[in-house]
Amino acid sequence: YDVCEVRPGPNLNMIVGANGTGKSSIVCAICLGLAGKPSFIGRADKVGLFVKQGCLKGVVEIELSKTPGNIIITREIQVVNNTSAWFINRKPATLKTVEEQIAALNIQVDNLCQFLPQDKVGEFAKLSKIELLEATEKSIGPPEMYQFHCELKNFREKERELEVNMHIIETQSSDCREISVIICNNLCRDKTNSLEKMRQRIERYKQDVERYHERKRHLDLIEMLERKRPWVEYENVRQQHEDVKQSRDQAKEELKNLKELQSPVTKKIQETEEYFKSLDMKIRDKATEIKDTSQKCKQKQDALEMKDKQIEEIHQALRMKKDEEMDRQRKIHNTHKMIEDWKNELNTMAACENLQPQTDAVNNELKKLQEERANIDSDISDLTAEKMNQEREKKRIIDRLGQLNNIMNMKEENLKGRFRDTHSALIWLRKNKDKFKKKVCEPMMLEINMKDNRHAKYVENHVSANDMRAFVFESQEDMEMFLMRDHQKLRVNAVCAPAESCAESLPSRPIEELHRYGFFSYLRELFDAPHPVMSYLCSQYRVHDVPVGTEKTRNMIERVIQETKLRQIYTAEEKYIVKVSAYTNLTLSTNTSLRAAQFLSSSVDTDERGQLENQQQDINNTLKSLEMRLTTLFERQKHLERRDNELRQQKKELLERGNRRRQLESKIGVKYDSLKQLEQDAINLEKESQQANVKIKEINTQKAKLVTELMHLIKNCISLNILKADLVLQSTTVAAEKNRLESEYKAASVQLRAAE
Description:
Layout: H1 23-33, H2 38-41, E1 57-64, E2 71-78, E3 83-88, E4 91-93, H3 95-104, H4 121-125, H5 129-140, H6 143-170, H7 176-348, H8 356-418, H9 420-431, E5 440-441, H10 444-447, E6 449-450, H11 456-462, H12 465-468, E7 470-473, H13 476-484, E8 493-496, E9 521-522, E10 527-528, H14 531-541, E11 547-548, H15 551-555, H16 557-564, E12 568-570, E13 574-580, E14 587-593, H17 606-680, H18 685-755
Parallel strand pairs: 7-8
Antiparallel strand pairs: 1-2, 2-3, 3-4, 5-7, 6-10, 9-11, 12-13, 13-14
Coiled coil: 152-261, 352-400, 609-702
Family: Belongs to the SMC family. SMC5 subfamily.
Subcellular location: Chromosome; Nucleus
């Protein structure tokens, strides 16, 4: 592990786990961190070997329970020089000081009855009864118990010595033999005890000696087998070499036979290949001849098509001559008719009357009409400019309303992310509002709009999170129907506003009286909300009577609590709740830090939104009025344009009536000239037809010659194709034979390569 923190309970007595999970890491850390020596663990003789590989330093930190305060012992182990630095409660200390602190807590990591590493289990099992008793006394008894036990044994030895001495003094009058017997008995008893201890020690060592001799036998056997191994390996490899050598000689013989069998096939393939190439050359020659003959045939066919086109062009030219002559005759007839009509009109036309008064009247009316049109164009321009200004203002208002709607969308997304069931119920409510008898308000976090987003934290810390996402109903019946919600089983909150409105409730005192304490407003004045929501908050949370203060309020909070007798107080960053004990009449206050706002930090200014919507309605009405005025002006403009066109048409007719006679005389003269030219351009169709027949006869003679040549070329091409088909059949047969031989050759080649 790079970093590992272990928090054992007060009764830790065993660490268990699968291999590699870190049991030894914890045990080693306990031992080394409590001034234990590496030998106590039985794994390594240097502390640097306990640090993770690749690291230059390791740290063990142990916190020990102690009255009146815990102590923290830290050991930093340096890998380079196997040194340790000790700290007690983060302050440098010596090893001796650490050992004194540990001894004071009766911690003995060198005592197997108190601290037993996995590698010391065997040593623990070998302890004698006397050693187990002494280790147990050190482990669980008070510090003086083992000391008393040692003193008790010393006293027992001294007692025995004193008993011997007293017995010697009492029997001085007896003979020396009796003294000698007593001394010998005591010495014999001591020797017997020593002998028993040595026998027990020999029994413990006997198993170690047996394991040592068994290990020695295994090592001798391994040494003997290591000496035999090269000879066995050599014999195996030599036998393999002989087998492979024999297989190689057999493969050489098989390869030679395969090469001899493949030689005739190779020669036959070469002969087939040469014959196939000669046939292919002949086929290509015939194909070239066929191509040349086909090209000549195509040229003859193209020449025949060209002759047909020439004949068609002659027929087309003749038809065009006929059409041209018919057109000339039709034009002559029409010209005669037009001249006759114009002469009749001249004969019936009366003398030209005086048209000037009518022309002047039309000109005057046109002048007045143009002045009126100019005025209308000016009015249209002004109204259009005003309409564009109103539309720009409307676009600005729509953009701002869109921004406000985006804020509402953000609040809805926040609701969806935190309370998905509530959001699902909101969607259902919007689709089914017609099912409710009275007004239903959406969750409070959507309905409440802060006047200043910085004050959102006061409202959110005052109103519970459950109520922030609750729907507000004016009718208990509507709320019960909503909670059923078509059995959707969504987990949502709903509250009912009080029957008697509390939205306009007055505070217990005016806010001006609290200004000297740093209060600037009551909670109700910090936000806007629909009437049912505000009524519920005033009734349930008394937002109309909870003041909000500043840092000034915090600095004089004790005075505020004593003088104002307020039950709930908000300062810049804290909330205070004041209670009076019913038994002692003492004033108790608790304060908590304000949480950051989560739901109301993005609020919509409802006043601004209402003003924008009213402005939008006014602009729509103005645009509608402007549109009606423009429509009237456009209709008047169209009427004037129609009248203008009528007057101009009248003026044109008056002018044309004065010029008509001169125009008719001029037109009749022009038509007589045109008629004369048409009569001179007559076409001789009989002569043109004879010339066309001569040309067609000459072309048909040329076509007959070309057809004869084409028939000869086609016969030649057919004979060449027959020869080519015969060669192709031969080539196909040879190719099949060649493929068969190559397939056999390929199969033999595979065997040959495998043999090689």
